[in-house]
Automatic annotation (TrEMBL):
Its EC number is 4.2.1.93. InterPro entries: CARKD (IPR000631), Myb_DNA-bind_4 (IPR044822), Ribokinase-like (IPR029056). Belongs to the NnrD/CARKD family. Residues 198-235 form a coiled coil. Its cofactor is Mg(2+). Residues 120-132 have a biased composition (Acidic residues). Catalyzes the dehydration of the S-form of NAD(P)HX at the expense of ATP, which is converted to ADP. Together with NAD(P)HX epimerase, which catalyzes the epimerization of the S- and R-forms, the enzyme allows the repair of both epimers of NAD(P)HX, a damaged form of NAD(P)H that is a result of enzymatic or heat-dependent hydration. This is ATP-dependent (S)-NAD(P)H-hydrate dehydratase. The keyword Aminoacyl-tRNA synthetase does not apply. (6S)-NADPHX binds at residues 408, 461-467, 530.
């Protein structure tokens, strides 16, 4: 590191000549010859130079001498090749020649190749410094002289490599691995016993064929037993159906078989007590009632979507100038708290978009301002969490045609208690009540709040449906047969209309099941259920306001539920066609007008 820090120090001509005089003294040259540990020599040179008035370190002296020797050797090499033309490139050429001529003769090219460091090599640290990349002589010296860069080329003569082959024979070049490696003998395969192989093959084929025939015989025997069991089961079912038809014909010989179902349903209802799940006696009748409901389900399957859709069109009121505001529907939404403000808005605005004239939202005080800011069309009442909430809402019930309970309601005990009392007051007004979302949580905790009310409609998703079913039957839900489970839940709730939302919306009132297979999309965004519940509130009012001829004696709740499910799916389809994965409930609400017209007014 010291050599690097001192190479840039400039040397004057006087100082350089003084250094050469000291370095050329006989005792110094004698000490340098053949001595590779020469740091003490350059310390002596620096000391003598200091006595002459020039303060230099031993390392600076060594580097300067090394630089001068390189310049001299390069100049001398150039003189040998170019007839003395390089004599003037080294200012101290004569002094260096005088000093070095007294030393043993060394080939300049050899000195250049070796770096001219033989006699200047010091201890271990200095040897590492001498191995630094060679610097330009002009930079290493004082700048007094320069020389053209000479490229040193080293050539190596080809050296033959003796290779011993076999028994000591030497060759100047290897002929390759194949010449010295003996060839391996090829393997010879023995003749295969074809006769024995064929015999063994035939034996195995015969064994496999025999095993196949045995397995086939066993399979046929199992198939025969299965067919016999199915035949016996079919005969038993026919006997049961025959007994059922004979009993119906004896009870009412004029009415058709399908009209005899309500008495069976009423019998089931008579065994149930309000607020209590299915009793022991109703469990005993469960098998019989299920046979009757299965027969009704078959009738509903024959009815199909094409038979229900015209009924939905029948209940849609015509638009005339003779009507006054509010005549086509005044819908109330019970829900909306600080955490959930979007759900009641979606339900209320969907009701207006479907065709209701007025939409009221009864929410908490914290949610009122937010919901009002969504749309000026909504009438918002911030009373749901007030001390006299039930009295405040009850004043509006005579003006409402239907009620939707649950969107954004939350699970606060106070809000659930108020919602329960509002449901009781609404039942006394005999208006349709749609229960969704957190309203279904209330029903699962207290089924009696809506149990047995024929104008009640439940709209659970699969998780909410599972909670309701297990709350009523205290047993796990059989997920393999949703239709049967939905009918059982409807009967347990007093033949309420249940809308099980899913891949296919399943609608049942305990007597029949209708599947809504209207095409939708794979997009399921939050708020779609609120669109369905809001539109269902309007359609339920229209269905119950229509005559029995318009619904052809079909349960008005079922007709309204089918219309709401079809409309929601059509809105989802149209919005998804425009927005794809980015579809939201707001996009679906924008499609209500065109979807309604396409389904019910075309």
């Amino acid at each position: 590191m010291l050599a690097i820090s001192t190479r840039g120090f400039l040397w004057s001509d006087v100082e350089t000549r003084t250094l050469l005089n000291i370095w050329g003294e006989q005792d110094i040259q004698t000490a340098l010859d053949g001595n590779f540990r020469n740091s003490h020599v350059y310390r002596d040179v620096a000391r003598r130079l200091g006595e002459m008035g020039f303060e230099r370190t031993p390392e600076q002296c060594r580097v300067r001498i090394k630089s001068l020797k390189r310049q001299f050797l390069l100049a001398k090499e150039g003189n040998l090749r170019n007839n003395g033309q390089y004599h003037k490139i080294c200012k101290f050429y004569d002094a260096m020649e005088r000093i070095l001529s007294s030393r043993p003769q060394i080939d300049p090219q050899e000195l250049l190749d070796s770096g001219a460091v033989g006699d200047e090599t010091m201890d271990g640290t200095e040897e590492e410094e001498d191995t630094d990349p060679p610097q330009h002589p002009y930079l290493e010296s004082t700048g007094e002289c320069s020389y053209p860069e000479t490229q040193v080329k080293m050539e190596y003569p080809p050296i033959p490599i003796p290779v011993t082959v076999g028994n000591g024979y030497s060759s100047q070049s290897a002929s390759g691995p194949s010449s010295s490696r003996p060839k391996r003998p090829k393997k010879r395969h023995a003749d295969l016993p074809l006769d024995s192989l064929m015999e063994r093959f035939l034996e195995q084929s015969a064994e496999a064929e025999q095993s196949f025939y045995q397995l086939e015989e066993q399979r046929l025997q199992v198939e025969d037993r299965r067919r016999e069991a199915e035949h016996a089961r079919e005969l038993h079912m026919l006997q049961v159906l025959g007994q059922m038809f004979s009993s119906i014909a004896t009870r009412n010989p004029v009415a058709p078989a399908t009209t005899a179902m309500p008495p069976a349903r009423n019998t089931m209802e008579s065994t149930m007590q309000p607020g209590v799940p299915m009793s022991a006696s109703s469990h005993m009748m469960r098998g019989r009632s299920f046979i009757e409901r299965s027969f009704s389900l078959g009738t509903a399957a024959r009815t199909g979507m094409d038979d229900i859709l015209p009924l939905v069109k029948n209940i849609v009121p015509p638009l005339t100038s003779k009507k006054h505001k509010g005549q086509d529907g005044r819908i109330g939404i019970i829900g909306g708290c600080q955490e959930y403000t979007g759900a009641p808005y979606f339900a209320a605005i969907s009701a207006l978009k479907v065709g209701a004239d007025l939409s009221h939202v009864f929410c908490t005080k914290d949610a009122a301002i937010v919901i009002k800011s969504y749309s000026p069309e909504l009438i918002v009442h911030p009373v749901l969490d007030s001390p006299n909430a039930v009295e405040e809402i009850e004043k509006w019930l005579p003006r409402l045609h239907s009620l939707v309970v649950g969107p954004g309601l939350g699970r606060d005990d106070k809000l659930l208690k108020n919602a329960k009392e509002v449901i009781e007051k609404s039942k006394a007004r005999d208006i349709p009540i749609v229960i969704d979302a957190d309203g279904l949580w209330l029903v699962a905790q207290q089924p009696s709040v809506i149990q047995g009310y024929q104008k009640g409609i439940l709209t659970p998703n699969y998780m909410e449906f599972t909670r309701l079913y297990e709350a009523m039957y205290h047993e796990p839900l059989d997920s393999s047969d949703h239709q049967r489970s939905a009918m059982e839940l409807s009967v347990a709730m007093g033949n309420l209309t249940v809308v099980l939302k899913g891949e296919e919306d399943l609608i049942t009132d305990g007597n029949k099941v209708i599947l809504c297979r209207q095409e939708g999309s794979g997009r399921r965004c939050g708020g779609q259920g609120d669109l369905l519940s809001g539109s269902l509130g309007v359609l339920a009012h229209w269905a119950y306001a229509s005559s029995a001829d318009m619904t052809k004696s079909v349960n008005p709740s079922v007709v309204a539920a089918f219309g709401a499910c079809s409309l929601t799916r059509q809105c989802n389809k149209q919005a998804f066609h425009k927005h794809g994965r980015a579809t939201t409930t707001t996009d679906m609400i924008q499609e209500i007008s065109s979807a309604f017209k396409k389904l019910f007014e075309s």
